[in-house]
Write a structure and sequence with these properties.
The complex is a heterotrimer of chains A (391), B (276) and C (330).
Chain A (H helix, E strand, L loop, with lengths): L3 E9 L5 E10 L4 E5 L6 H9 L6 E6 L2 E2 L10 E4 L11 H11 L4 H14 L15 H13 L5 E5 L7 H18 L2 E6 L2 H7 L2 E6 L2 E6 L1 H6 L4 H6 L6 E8 L2 E4 L2 E4 L2 H8 L7 E6 L4 E3 L11 E6 L2 E4 L3 E7 L8 H10 L8 E7 L9 E6 L5 E3 L12
Helix pairs in contact in A: 2-3, 2-4, 3-4
Chain B lengths: L4 H30 L18 H8 L4 H31 L5 H12 L4 H14 L5 H25 L3 H9 L4 H30 L2 H5 L9 H10 L7 H36 L1
Chain C lengths: L2 H7 L11 H12 L6 H36 L1 E2 L9 E2 L3 H7 L2 H34 L4 H13 L2 H12 L20 H29 L3 H9 L4 H29 L3 H6 L9 H11 L3 H25 L14
Antiparallel strand pairs in C: 1-2
The chains are: A alpha+beta (391), B mainly alpha (276), C mainly alpha (330).
């Protein structure tokens, strides 16, 4: 059980590139922290520095208040689960799980008991005498987990442990990782590039980009109050819609019409000096509803009518896509997310709305959609700062 | 994939050509070794009169037993030592980060392409002054040196195939670098080590230049050198039969290796080349 | 403390930084002080050096020391038959060797053997590589057979060729007009030496080329076929360009090996009738003639020749020195 503190931790490679820049984070005992971001953002490097597999160029790493920058990985008492599982192919499952204990010179009886215990937690008992080559992907993943939990380390580090599994198994393993972590109460740092995994697993999420922390917070905070365009675009699926807007008096002019500025938004804009006239407006797909299904409070909302391009029915809800003219948002902040996910939807002149399953929406027909003006986010277009995130 | 008749005949012809290319010189020396001495000059490819006399003679009269033992002993000892110290170096080169790695690689490449004849004189001089001339050790030392580059290159190619994360995992599991090597990497590298050992042994077994330069009698002379000296012996007999028989004797281990370890030898020889 | 309380109590909002020049600039001052090498990294280095030490020591003692010794000898008059006349004579040995027609003759012979045999080996080796790589029947058998010339002792193969061309004895000599003795004629003897070299080393060349063939993806061949390329076009336009690195490495290995040609010549002619290679002439001066000064000079000149050839390959053709890569580290 341990508290991990990263104090201005920096990683600079020999060629001068800065992979992680002044990373500050206090990880509490028993906490489950997720490092998330697009590939190359420095999340794995950060994890490797905590593990001791990468040298720390600058700053200090403390575990339980003790500086461990120069401590070898084996003396940090931290376990790690790798993306490839890194199971030893020449050892049986029992030997794999028991390896850390064998290295720690634990006596045979204790070792057997601990391995059996771990195997039971992970439902691996029938496979103890098999070699990793004879196991399925999910079983291998569990062996990797077993090797981590068997010696009750101070902390678990997990480097995209689920990314080699198929979608269904991934959801299953996600739950069991969460359950094991709660049960053992071991401090955990978990790296992923999958925002859904991040949102569902973590007590706290650290969003990284190009070696810098963008925002740290609970899943709910990141979803409701993203500090900038990058976080707003990264968190949430489907992604937040972005349209250009012009502030005029008490409203913003957009292709969706004139959106009045609510009391809350006006106040948070006043908190910033030099609010530009041209801004970027962000609205989550979930903020929309089919206007015909909104009864009360409709008067306070904004409506917008356009022809529906595509409808995707998910059963529990429907997604309706609209194309917007002259509404492309060109931002470096969003471009990076697009590059990483390979999609071109974010910032494109397209609007995604999530509607109630009862909506009679049809492709090619016009539809009136409604949204609450208080649900919009106003971003400064150059720095990408969310002017409405509040404090 | 079904093979058409045309493909089958085409590949059969290609295979036969390869087989003839390889076998004609080898079978010729075998034929010679089985020919009765009176028929050496009949010019026929296959023997008309068979005899095993040549084989008996090289051991009974020619004293070929001793050079054969020298070859086997020197080859095995050199290979063993080269493999042990070569594995250490290959591991460091393939897996660890350290200043001097390029120097190490460059140095062994330099030795691999070095004209061995340039070393003959200095070694001849040094070994004579140290009393190593015409001894097993006198040959083992240069053999180790010249098999090391091959050992280091081939093994580091094999070691690179072992996933990095296994070592990181071992470190996280509490292993020292040596424990990671000993308990995780070494067992996985065994097939590569065996392959490399075969290649190194073939290299030692084949050597001729050092064998004739650094020995003066059968006490350390290896088989290839001994065969060459069959000619120089002032025997009244024609040495053709003895040479051929001895040649076949030292070819047998190679054929056995090739038959058993074909796959491994091929992968060993090709592994270094692809990486380049 | 619940996780939510913890999260809010530790709320740690940071102003997002901009990427680009700014980040690098702020990291500037830290780059000046040497970063502390961690215990892990230091123990890694120590281990690496310890592991390399035995190999390095052996290689240095057995080669570097003799090389230096050779270079020193090359500046001396030192003939074991006249040990009293030993003296430092500067570059006189080099003058003597470089103006000696025997040296240049051996040089020419060596180069002819190297160029002709490697050129033919490349063509034959490519054909053999294609057979070994693509044959649909008996692939294992063919590969096993091809390894025999590679593994066989050079001296054994050389004797086979010698007897084959010996008048009266050999099956090949039978094919020649009566009274001809090819191994005593310079041109014919060199041709036989080249033949022996080619036979022995083509399989090695073929194996290296096969490694190159194996990295050309099958799908590329199929794509080229769909694009309308004939078999020959696929080979010259797709396979060969992709194999270039493997071909260059194979050529480098073989050329450096051929320049040292010794065993075959020793058995077939022992350098008689103008068939001496550089290795043979050097050896004769050293061990036969016991002229250490001249012999060492020849050694050094041979070494320089080898280094020049390697440099041409590596710098001129961009041949990658094997093992120079360092992939997979992070």
């Amino acid at each position: 059980m341990a508290e991990i503190v990263l104090d201005k931790v920096t990683k600079k490679f020999a060629d001068g590139t800065v992979a992680v820049d002044s990373f500050n984070l206090d990880i509490a005992d028993q906490e489950f922290v997720i490092l998330v971001g697009p590939s190359g953002c420095g999340k794995s490097t950060t994890l490797n520095m905590i593990a001791g597999l990468e040298d720390i160029s600058d700053g200090e790493l403390r575990i339980d208040g003790k500086r461990v920058n120069e401590v070898a990985p084996r003396d940090r008492d931290i376990a790690m689960v790798f993306q490839s599982y890194a199971l030893y192919p020449h050892m049986t499952v029992r030997e794999n799980i028991g390896f850390p204990l064998k290295l720690a010179k634990v006596d045979k009886a204790t070792m057997k008991q601990k391995v059996d215990e771990a195997a039971q937690i992970l439902d691996l008992t029938p496979y103890l005498d098999r070699k990793p080559g004879a196991l399925s992907g999910g079983q291998r993943q569990r062996v990797a987990m077993g090797r981590a939990i068997v010696r009750s380390p101070k902390a678990f580090l997990m480097d995209e442990p689920l990314s080699n599994l198929d979608a269904k198994l991934r959801v299953q393993m996600r739950t069991s990782i969460s359950r094991i972590q709660k049960r053992l109460g071991t401090t955990t740092v978990y790296v992923t590039h999958d925002q859904t995994e991040a949102m569902t697993l973590g007590d706290r999420i650290v969003i990284m980009r190009a070696g810098l922390i963008q925002q740290v917070g609970s899943p709910q905070e990141l979803y409701e109050r993203p500090v900038n365009l990058f976080v707003a675009g990264f968190i949430g699926s489907p992604s937040m819609n972005f349209v250009p807007g012009t502030i005029a008096e008490n409203a913003v002019d957009t292709v969706l019409g004139k959106i009045p500025l609510t009391e809350r938004i006006r106040r948070s804009l006043e908190g910033h000096k030099d609010v530009p006239r041209d801004v970027i407006i962000g609205i989550r797909p979930e903020a929309f509803e089919d206007a015909s299904l909104v009864d009360g409070g409709r008067g306070e909302g904004v409506t917008f009518t356009s022809q529906v391009d595509i409808v995707e029915s998910m059963g529990s809800e429907k997604f309706a896509y609209f194309s917007l003219e002259n509404a492309h948002v060109d931002s470096e902040h969003l471009a990076e997310i697009e590059r990483d996910t390979g999609s071109e939807e974010i910032g494109a002149a397209q609007l995604v709305t999530e509607l109630d399953a009862r909506s009679p929406v049809r492709e090619g027909r016009a539809l009136e959609v409604w949204f609450d003006p208080d649900s919009i986010h106003v971003f400064e277009p150059h720095s990408g700062v969310n002017l409405t995130a509040g404090k | 994939m079904a093979i058409t008749a045309r493909q089958r005949s085409g590949w059969t012809v290609a295979n036969i050509i390869v087989a003839l290319y390889v076998l004609i010189p080898v079978v010729w020396i075998l034929s010679l070794s089985l020919k009765d001495p009176s028929t050496f000059t009949d010019g026929h490819y296959f023997p008309r009169k068979f005899t095993f006399e040549n084989y008996v003679n090289i051991f009974k009269v020619g004293g070929f037993g001793r050079p054969l033992i020298n070859s086997i002993g020197i080859g095995l000892i050199s290979t063993l030592i080269a493999i042990v110290i070569g594995t250490f170096a290959a591991y460091a080169i393939a897996r660890l980060e350290f200043p001097g790695k390029r120097l190490m690689l460059g140095g062994s490449l330099l030795i691999a392409m070095f004209p061995q004849v340039s070393l003959v004189t200095p070694l001849f001089q040094i070994e004579r002054s140290l009393g190593l001339f015409n001894t097993w050790i006198g040959l083992i030392i240069p053999y180790i040196t010249f098999t090391l580059p091959l050992t280091i290159y081939t093994l580091s190619a094999f070691l690179r195939e072992i996933p990095w994360e296994l070592e990181k995992a071992a470190k996280m599991d509490g292993a020292t670098p040596f424990q990671a090597f000993r308990q995780v990497i070494a067992p996985l590298a065994m097939p590569g080590v065996v392959t490399t050992a075969i290649l190194a042994f073939i290299l030692c077994w084949n050597d001729f230049l050092f064998a004739i330069s650094l020995t003066s009698s059968n006490s350390a002379r290896t088989a290839p050198a001994a065969i060459a000296f069959f000619t120089g012996a002032s025997q009244f007999e024609d040495p053709t039969g003895s040479i051929s028989a001895a040649a076949i004797v030292i070819t047998i281990p190679i054929i056995i290796f090739v038959l058993i370890f074909q796959r491994r030898i091929v992968s060993g020889l090709t592994s270094g080349a692809v990486k380049g | 403390m619940t996780s939510e309380e913890r999260a809010s109590s530790r709320e740690n909002l940071q102003q997002p930084g901009r990427l680009g020049e700014g980040t690098v600039a702020t990291a500037g001052p830290t780059a000046v002080q040497k970063p502390k090498v961690s215990e892990g990294r230091r123990s890694e280095r120590k281990l690496a050096w310890m592991l390399c030490a035995p190999a390095a020591v052996v290689m240095v003692v057995v080669t570097i020391y003799p090389i230096v010794y050779s270079i020193l000898l090359s500046f001396q008059r030192y003939d074991l038959r006249f040990p009293n006349q030993k003296a430092w004579i500067g570059l006189a040995n080099y003058g003597a060797v470089l103006t000696n027609s025997f040296w240049w003759h051996a040089f020419a012979v060596t180069m002819i053997i190297t160029v002709v045999s490697v050129a033919i080996e490349l063509v034959l080796g490519m054909a053999l590589a294609l057979v070994m790589h693509r044959t649909l029947i008996g692939r294992g058998t063919i590969r096993t057979l091809a390894l025999i010339p590679y593994g066989i002792v050079t001296v054994v193969a050389a004797f086979s060729w010698q007897y084959a061309w010996t008048p009266g004895t050999g099956y090949l000599a039978q094919l020649l007009p009566a009274g001809s003795a090819p191994l005593t004629q310079q041109a014919q003897a060199i041709a036989i030496i080249i033949l022996a070299e080619i036979w022995k080393t083509t399989p090695f060349m073929a194996l290296l080329l096969m490694a190159g063939l194996a990295i050309v993806p099958d799908e590329l061949q199929k794509a080229a076929a769909m694009d309308g390329a004939s078999t020959w076009q696929r080979f010259t336009r797709v396979t060969l360009p992709l194999m270039k690195p493997a071909i260059l490495v194979a050529l480098l290995f073989r050329v450096l090996d051929a320049v040292r040609v010794y065993d075959n010549i020793y058995i077939l002619t022992n350098g008689a009738n103008g068939t001496s290679s550089l290795s043979i002439i050097t050896y004769h001066n050293l061990i036969g003639g016991l002229n250490l000064g001249i012999g060492s000079t020849m050694s050094v000149l041979m070494f320089i020749t080898v280094v020049i050839i390697a440099a041409i390959f590596i710098k001129g053709f961009g041949t990658a020195a094997p093992g120079s890569d360092n992939q997979g580290r992070r």
